[in-house]
TrEMBL record:
The lineage of its organism: Eukaryota, Metazoa, Chordata, Craniata, Vertebrata. It comes from the Eukaryota. This is Dolichyl-phosphate-mannose--protein mannosyltransferase. One of its GO terms (molecular function) is dolichyl-phosphate-mannose-protein mannosyltransferase activity. Pfam families: MIR (PF02815), PMT (PF02366), PMT_4TMC (PF16192). It comes from Crocuta crocuta (Spotted hyena).
Amino acid sequence: QSVLEDPLLLFYKMLGYLEHPVVVTADINLNVVALTAVGLLSRLWQLSYPRAVVFDEVYYGQYISFYMKRIFFLDGSGPPFGHMLLALGGYLGGFDGNFLWNRIGAEYSSNVPVWSLRLLPALTGALSVPMAYQILMELGSSHWAATGAALLILIENALITQSRLMLLESVLIFFNLLAVLSYLKFANCQKQRPFSLSWWFWLMLTGVACSCAVGVKYVGVFTYLLVLAVAGVHAWHLIGDRTLSNVCVLGHVLARAAALLVVPAAMYLLFFYVHLSLVYRSGPHDQIMSSAFQASLEGGLARITQGQPLEVAYGSQVTLKNVFGKPVPCWLHSHQSTYPMIYENGRGSSHQQQVTCYPFKDVNNWWIVKDPGRHQLVVNNPPRPVRHGDVVQLVHGMTTRFLNTHDVAAPLSPHSQEVSCYIDYNISMPSQNLWRLEIVNRESDTEVWKTILSEVRLVHVNTSAVLKLSGAHLPDWGFRQLEVVGEKLSRGHHESAVWNVEEHRYGRGQEQKEREVELHSPAQMDISRNLSFVARFLELQWRMLTAKSDGSEHKYSSSPLDWVTLDTSIAYWLHPRTSAQIHLLGNVVIWASASLATVVYALLFFWYLLRRRRKICDLPEDSWLRWVLAGAVCAGGWAVNYLPFFLMEKTLFLYHYLPALTFQILLLPVVLQHISDRLCRTQLLRSLFGALLVAWYSCACHVFNALRPLTYGDKSLSPSELKALRWKDSWDILIRKY
């Protein structure tokens, strides 16, 4: 009976609870709500203005159109996650991808949802404002300091400009801040509730945010490394905590490794998986990729190579593409023209038929694989496949001359041998046209030469020279095509000496005229060949990392030193009829103050460090640890996002400094609060310092308001007004005002 009474008693208690309304209480930080609201207002106000292509929107817009049309593209500036986020805005806005992104300032057509395309950068820029507040709170700063940091992010003109356009810097900054905030919340949970639900949530979110930062732009890896470094130091201290059991310490280490290493790696792969699933059609960037990659795309090369015979046989007609693909993708080529008797430098040549590498598809790219022991140029039935180590001859399809090399210096590479198609001049220079096939990526020594899949070297039997693309452009007598040479194998090999069969058919014509008809007629068969995701990912990743950035000078390019001194700016957009315009301009008061705060922090840090070495502790231990952590996050975030640019050989712009600037702005209130709390020892000094801060922030607000027409571009400016807003004249604004 007692067993039955307990459930009944529980039931009656539940009925008693239902007699009263269910009430949920929640703590709402009105500071965060207010900062979010003003952040949204500053970034979303008149977001679709100007309705024209602004600066780098001309590039990102092309990628969005490619996504909408499912066309493959490659951008060497970073992984595809950021582009996919921008494309998501276009997709939600109903964009069909039909717009010609050919010039800055072009008016958007009615089918381009400008507001939707710019929405995501604007939202991330707006959310960075309350996030700055929360980061300072997690670092142990006061509400006033945290609010000050958020307000500085709010009125910084360059951050506003960059976040109101279809650009990725504000998205990168958002994920940088999210990674730092998540880790700080995790670290604070560690002190109170390790392995709790919130502990796991913030730890996992840290890994996700780090992977998203790297997925937006490669420079996001700097913040990721910073978070890993701070987490590594904390883990090291945790290992030394004797109050924890070995099992507990192991659990902490494994949890951090899974969240901060495994999760980001998995997310990074996921970005590429989604990207390659979306862009499955052939496009203008195909030629950068290998033949196998191109054949995996719908249309383009896949349409040409579809159903080609897999195994290369004696009598096969093939085109040979250089695997290296630099300076441009090209195919082994020959034509009727011969090398000049005497080069410009006075050296002589063999006067044989030229062999080059030609960067366009052409009938003169076709070669026939011949068995040296037979005269026929057709494929037997059944075909006799060519294997690794076989000796072959390559016959140029249109001229029927044999690929040849001999001990004659190449035209532009005198230390290498000239490669030609042999012409018999009845002189004492016999043909040397035997080549040994070496399959570089073979799995066994009896591997068959395969179309597209096999990467091969052709080694000259007589001289042991390997057929190689030198990359040099021949003079006008060589039609500016690329030089092909024979280089001694003993010097090692490079990808420029590796080739693969791209187009392939089994030759059937017995006579030369029949063969020429075959060479002009592409084969069409209904068979397809696909690469695995891992193979496509690895190739795409390699191409992105090795893609040559445009090192040419730009009108608005600048050096990292110019960023700190604000000695540069960028004109983003100019109204075609009025003088309204948008410039990337920083708030000079905030930039100069943030740089000064970095110097002050460094001086104070080393001063305290020296005194602590002398056993003089100016700060209590917990205050010292907070001071060090704030410096590691804020000053460290500035350093890792700024200093690497000094080592980069690429065209740099002012907006590259914005992630570093954001961390530097976070450091500014930390230093100001420290000065107020620790160095201003009397109430009078604190009052004077507070008044000075009010005046300083008023100056920052005034500069923001003065630069506002160039931030939003919604006001026409006269030449004199524009001149007054130049960087070096910004201080004059304050002098005239105060």
